[in-house]
């Protein structure tokens, strides 16, 4: 287990590139690890996307909620589901 989370600060990235970076980072994250996302606005829509595409695989913990920066610890708690598998409700 890492002692410190990796920090992914997307505030200086072009908006169209941000989600791509965030999801690439999550895809490469081993189970049991997390990273801290730093953004210039509340990433609530991103959480909805995580829930739709990665249900049961992640944790989401706000560490800071503005007004200048939002920091969210995103963790991987399960491996990706196999293609075609359904997530239990």
Q: What fold name stands as the CATH topology?
A: Translation Initiation Factor IF3
Order of helices and strands: EHEHEE
Overall, the morphology is globular
- Helical residue percent band: 25-40%
Radius of gyration of CA atoms, rounded to a whole number: 13 Å
| SS field, number of helical segments | 2
What's the pLDDT, averaged over the residues?
Answer: 90
- Protein structure class: alpha+beta
CATH architectural type: 2-Layer Sandwich
Largest sheet: 4 strands, mixed
CATH class: Alpha Beta
List the quaternary state of the chains.
Answer: single chain
What features would you describe in this structure?
The chain is an alpha+beta fold and 89 residues long. The protein has helices at residues 15-27, 44-53, and strands at 6-9, 34-39, 58-65, 70-76. 13% of the residues are buried.
Please render the helix and strand layout as text.
Blueprint: E1 6-9, H1 15-27, E2 34-39, H2 44-53, E3 58-65, E4 70-76
Parallel strand pairs: 1-2
Antiparallel strand pairs: 2-4, 3-4
In short:
This protein has one domain (6-76): TusA-like domain (Translation Initiation Factor IF3), CATH 3.30.110. Helices cover 26% and strands 28% of the residues.
Features:
89 residues; alpha+beta; Translation Initiation Factor IF3; 4-stranded mixed β-sheet; 4 strands; 26% helix; DUF2249; DUF2249 domain-containing protein
């Amino acid at each position: 287990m890492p002692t410190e989370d990796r920090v992914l600060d997307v505030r200086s990235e072009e908006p169209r590139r941000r989600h791509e970076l965030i999801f690439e980072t999550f895809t490469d994250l081993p189970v049991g690890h997390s990273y801290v996302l730093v953004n210039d606005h509340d990433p609530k829509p991103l959480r909805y996307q995580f829930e739709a595409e990665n249900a049961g695989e992640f944790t989401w913990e706000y560490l800071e909620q503005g007004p200048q920066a939002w920091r969210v610890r995103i963790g991987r708690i399960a491996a990706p589901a196999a293609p075609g598998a359904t997530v239990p409700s």
